[in-house]
Amino acid sequence: MKTHTSTGSLATWSGYRINPVGLVSFCVVLFWALVALFAPYLAPHSVGDMVDLDYFGPMRPGLWLGSDYLGRDMLSRIIYGTRYTVGISLAAVFIACFTGVVLGMTSAVLRGPVDMVVSRVLDAMNSIPSKLFGLMVVAAVGSSIPVLILTLSVIYIPGAYRFSRSLAVNIDTMDFMMVARIRGEKLPYLIGSEILPNIVGPVLADLGLRFVFIVLLLSGLSFLGLGVQPPYADWGALVRENIGGLPFAAPAVIVPSLAIATLTISVNLLIDNLPRKIRDRSAS
Amino acid sequence: MTNLVEIRGLTVEATTDSGRWIQILKGIDLDIAAGETVAFIGESGSGKTTAAMTLLGYARPGCRISGGTVRVDGHDMVTLSEKQRAALRGTVVAYVPQSAAAAFNPAATIMDQVIEVTRIHQLMPPDEARRRAVALFRALSLPNPDSIGDRYPHQVSGGQLQRLAAAMALIGDPKVVIFDEPTTALDVTTQVEVLRAFKAVTARRQIACVYVSHDLAVVAQIADRIMVLRHGEVQETGSVDDILTRPTHPYTKELLHAFHPDTGGRVAAAEAFATDASPLLEIKTLSAGYGPPQANGLPLALAVKGVSLQVKRGTNLGIIGESGCGKSTLARAIAGILPACNGDIQFDGRELWHSARQRSREQLRDLQIVFQHADTALNPAKSIEDILGRPLTFYHGLRGKARDARIDALMDMVRLPRSLRHRLPAELSGGQKQRVNFARALAAEPKLILCDEITSALDTVVASTIIDLLKELQRELGLSYVFISHDLSVIEAICDEIIVMYRGQAVETIIPSARQQPQHPYSQLLFSSVPKLDPTWLDTLDIDPERMRVA
């Protein structure tokens, strides 16, 4: 069924309405995902190879994105940087959202003292500025990828918790929750089968948003030199090490910034423009 | 021009999710003279509210008036600009919404909201508007007309708020007023007061009224003519007498029939009732309430005060009373949702814990509760199949093919087409949702089902088919029901014994088959407040509800 409608959408595909903005941003996200996956096959040079005699070299054939402050190939460094930025952020966001959402739904269902204790503890964590917390942890135990992932996820658990708890509290007041309770259902069924399907949409949107926050925080930490350590670098670290190229308008400082911007903006646009199911009962 | 309202060939279209336009009103013609009241009656989704709204020149978002003319006092509401329409709203044509509680702003005083119309249209200085409002309050027989305007909406009762909403509509001296199901959300005893007030005020001011309702008996009291709508088409138009005594259209006949539910088929049960069968459920001096426990061990607000009752096997008990009388709290206490603070619950010969958490799975299975609003009682994210399948797996351990077969059997039992299995609740009609809601309780194979106002949110016709279904299932499965409602005709149709509740206490037990007359003054008020199809009923009713309140 191919119908042109007045509501501004371009394509409908097997009962879903696809928005052009969503499609474009999906392509950008997919592009970065593929780059992260196939980095070793795509990168022309190794991360540490110094291939240019000049530093902050311009874009030219062979060095498509110029060279960095040590004369290394910028394209290869960005391709490898994708792995760190996307990989660490993705792992962190999944841990943060999974823990936060499960705790949030549990508090909403159990109420009473459990809710009280979990909420207060997480509120207390929420009150610590995120960058400061990151600085503190890295200063205390040093920077490694597992430490970064755990730190980033701990920072974003309270937000995911608050968000899912407020959604779950609304669902919990519905009569079907009462029906399930007096049927004698236990906690895992209540949160997994009754509440989760009703909040999964907003929770996914929140996951996308939190992914963006984590990318930015990771980039910020790396920019301060506390993130991924040399010779490897994520995008934030690439911006920092090449900041000296700013007066020379070197592509080495602009391109990683652009990479961060395209990924975060695309993820944001994608979650705002997800395909929408067309539910038309009267359709033939 | 003699008619105040002239509607010719009116069509309204709505857009579907995939962007197609479908007609929801298919050519309506209507004339209303000054001082005349026309009722739009029909089931939900028949287009009655949509039709009434066109008098304001308004179509809901996603809808548009696609053809025809709506002339109100000489203005064609269809062709006017939005600004011109706004100038007429409140002064020529006004609207009284169904839920006054939702229509008032809780943060402003009632008076400010009632006289807002005069301020927007700059009709009169505020002081004069206030004097007028007080006069209207008096005409609508509101208590303390001089000071009620200083209160906030939550400080007055539902019936009073509905009359205040009418005052809000009438202050601009409109020629046409649209009442959109104004008494549907009210108790019968309150409904009587509100209807009387509306009738008196509109008659005195020669206002043309459009009264939207699905309750034929209410309409019979207030309307001069009735227009029956179904699927966006006028089925029948005629005077109240014609429609009530000589209906020609099958749907109108169906509506009338739904009003006389047959009480047959209950004879067998009544016999069982007479013989001294052992009680299935026995409650002794049960109390329940809300809020923290006080020094005497009782909760702060006691909603049920020492109620005792008995349900015998295979018989039905009705609990009736106005909103706030504690009937739903009683059901919740029996189900263990709200643990009772005092008293005993004996079920099937064994003492039940007050809290559902401590009851065994078998006890929970035997005693099911069905809630009023199927919309919130069914998980919107799960298919009908999942909703019905869960109790089967949970209580009976059914899986795979056995479970599928049982789901089909349950759907047949409640007369739902099997093709609805994979639908979500939002894709079902109100009556179908209530059937699913009920089938889920049946899936547990209970001995007793608590029905908490399960027909209140449904149309008369749909409600009567649900009641028939309940009776049939009872014959087949040997169930017992505890039926909670504020609607006497529903309770009379299905129950062997009726308990009247008032302010948390069971004031009277009535056995309908014994043709027993109510003795307690509240029961008398309640029974006499149920609207009858006789158009002269409201005018001849001699009970004064306010007097009862004081007593």
TrEMBL record, chain A:
Residues 82-271 form the ABC transmembrane type-1 domain. This is Peptide/nickel transport system permease protein. Keywords: Cell membrane, Membrane, Transmembrane, Transmembrane helix, Transport. Pfam families: BPD_transp_1 (PF00528), OppC_N (PF12911). The chain crosses the membrane at residues 20-43, 84-112, 132-157, 207-228, 248-271. Belongs to the binding-protein-dependent transport system permease family. It is a multi-pass membrane protein. One of its GO terms (biological process) is transmembrane transport. GO terms for cellular component: plasma membrane. InterPro entries: BP-dependent_transpt_permease, MetI-like, MetI-like_sf, OppC_N. The lineage of its organism: Bacteria, Pseudomonadati, Pseudomonadota, Alphaproteobacteria, Rhodospirillales. It is found in: Cell membrane. PANTHER family: OLIGOPEPTIDE TRANSPORT SYSTEM PERMEASE PROTEIN APPC (PTHR43386), PEPTIDE ABC TRANSPORTER PERMEASE PROTEIN (PTHR43386:SF25).
TrEMBL record, chain B:
PROSITE patterns: ABC_TRANSPORTER_1, ABC_TRANSPORTER_2. One of its GO terms (molecular function) is ATP hydrolysis activity. InterPro entries: AAA+_ATPase (IPR003593), ABC_transp_ATP-bind (IPR050319), ABC_transporter-like_ATP-bd (IPR003439), ABC_transporter-like_CS (IPR017871), Oligopep_ABC_C (IPR013563), P-loop_NTPase (IPR027417). GO terms for cellular component: plasma membrane. Its main location: membrane. It is found in: Cell inner membrane. This is Peptide/nickel transport system ATP-binding protein. SUPFAM superfamilies: P-loop containing nucleoside triphosphate hydrolases. It is a peripheral membrane protein. The keyword Ligase does not apply. Keywords: ATP-binding, Nucleotide-binding, Transport. Belongs to the ABC transporter superfamily. Residues 7-256, 281-528 form the ABC transporter domain. One of its GO terms (biological process) is transmembrane transport.
